[in-house]
Amino acid sequence: MGLKRINVLAAAAILSASQISAAVAQANLASCPALGAYPAEELASFREMREPFTIPPHFRNVMAYDGDHVAVSTLGGGMICDEAVWMSNFAEPEFFRSDRFLGYAWVGADAYGYRVFDRAGSGGMVDTGLRPAFSDGGRRMAGLNASDAGAGALEGFAIWDIGATGLADIHFAGSHDVGFSAVPIVDPRVERFMGQDCVLVTAFLQSEIEAANFDPDRVERRSLIARDAENWIIREGQPDECRG
User: Fold this and answer.
1) Fewer CB within 10 Å of terminal CB in the chain, N or C?
2) Could you tell me the pTM of the whole model?
3) From residue 13, how far is each of 35, 59, 126, 188 by CA, in Å?
């Protein structure tokens, strides 16, 4: 589908507080916007690939799904509605930062990602590609994914500031941008924050992948870091460098 970076309002509609009770209660989420214009054959193909997904009981008061949309209630009584017709499989959702953020991994037609719904303020949604990391102080969130096929919803490295009522995008480098990584890497993952200004990343080096005897089950992932002071460029490094 050529999905790249999906940002706060690009794929999510925010509904008013007066609409939420009806929308969450209804299996078809009637208050969500109409689906985008898809060719009939494409729409049928999406629905044929869809696997059954039942929202876990402890999420049913804040999340609803009807096959075409996912709806997530905000902390203030509004609702975020995300078009999901082309998503065929979902992982079990989880909360972050108490119940402010709700997230889940998804797979679709030639695409994958990790939706993160921010339930503060009027609500919003970003896609972090893979499961995100949050700083210990709760001030920042990081997302990272890079794939050979370019099928991830993020395809890059992003940092957000977490404000009282929403997220602010402070850094993004696409996976093919000069500012993404100082060394060619494969299958990068955000591991965790060290403080607020340094992120620990692991990955395989491209040179290792190209080796004839490469076995991902026997080769250790390399330790890398990305620091605010270095414009968040991913490079080889150890956790203790984050303290410098």
Assistant:
1) C
2) 0.86
3) 11, 20, 12, 31
